[in-house]
Amino acid sequence: MVNGPTFNNPIVEQAADPWVWKHTDGYYYFMSTKRDHLELTQSATLTGLAEGRKKTIWTPEPGGRYSHNLWAPEIHRLDNKWYIYFTANDGGGDESRQICVLENAEADPMEGQWAWKGALPTPVPGLDGTVMTAGNQHYFLYAGYGHFPDYGSAIYIMRMSNPWTLAGDHVLLTAPTLSWEKQGGMAINEGPVILRRNGRIFMVYSASTTWSEDYSLGMLTMEENGDPMDPESWTKSMQPVFCKSVENGVYATGHNSFTQSPDGKEDWIVYHALPAPGVETALRSTRIQKFGWKPDGTPDFGVPAGESDALAKPSGE
């Protein structure tokens, strides 16, 4: 029995690749894949994302090189400006995908203009770009296409000289070599996202194809004082850390982000999932749930909650 106000998943229907940024202004900023434009949502609560204030902030020029398949947008606050990273292509295949960058200098990301800063010239075509900051250095993480040896994507890291410029070496951190990373017809490691706690940096990623019921989350762990550019700094978990629950009727759990409750007392995972195996990916919906920490200091994401499960609202709502 849950005491107090409750909610049920999903919180946003037909919203894949969910990204939530909790800002110091007290608002949550939410983005998800819309395919032909970028939409930013501002909400005072996590459970109210569907009803939040929405604004279309970018619509590409029709027929351009970056006008199709706008996927997995992420909003970040870096060096006192706002940046959005998103995947786009010209309507072709994987080899034409690139990660693009927009910038906004306003304090409120719902105001002002988003300026095009370019497409990042990654050494291999890719998707799902994100930024990790360690010390005073920004690092760019993304999923690049190739054969590992099966065709699919693996996660690479590069240094950044500023939020829109890559610099130096291109290093492979994790490739899809385990059986649970190769379900659905391709070998996939994608959607990297960073979580920090207990003196460690956790890089959580999505594995297998997004249309497979076995789409799940894997994890790399690094000591906070390690070198992110050294693959030896990272330890890969051999089993998924979050995956489908047949009992709860939740499948294809992946492409996540992390945030906290409004009062900062609880950690929450934001992810997309499907209500049944074999259904259209258009039915991917955004779900949230609170997670805890194991005695060894690693995250415990638990089991995805079913749609009939009443969950306590985030602390401070």
Task: Explain what the structure shows.
The protein is an all-beta fold and 317 residues long. It contains no helices and 22 strands. The strands form five sheets. Strands 10, 11, 12, 13, 14, 15, 16 and 17 form an eight-stranded mixed sheet that branches. A four-stranded antiparallel sheet has the order 2-3-4-5, with no helix packed on it. Strands 6-7-8-9 form a four-stranded antiparallel sheet, with no helix packed on it. The radius of gyration is 18 Å and the shape is globular.
Helix content: under 10%
Summed up, the helix count is 0
The total strand number stands at 22
- The string of secondary-structure elements, in order, is EEEEEEEEEEEEEEEEEEEEEE
Mean pLDDT: 97
Give a concise summary.
With 317 residues, the protein is mainly beta.
Architecture blueprint of SSEs:
Elements (H helix, E strand, L loop, with lengths): L5 E2 L11 E4 L5 E4 L6 E6 L9 E6 L9 E11 L2 E9 L8 E7 L10 E5 L6 E9 L2 E11 L3 E12 L2 E10 L12 E11 L2 E8 L8 E8 L11 E2 L14 E10 L6 E8 L10 E9 L5 E2 L10 E2 L5
Parallel strand pairs: 12-14
Antiparallel strand pairs: 1-22, 2-3, 3-4, 4-5, 6-7, 7-8, 8-9, 10-11, 11-12, 12-13, 14-15, 15-16, 16-17, 18-19, 19-20, 20-21
Characteristic key phrases:
single chain; 317 residues; mainly beta; eight-stranded mixed β-sheet; four-stranded antiparallel β-sheet; 0% helix; 49% strand
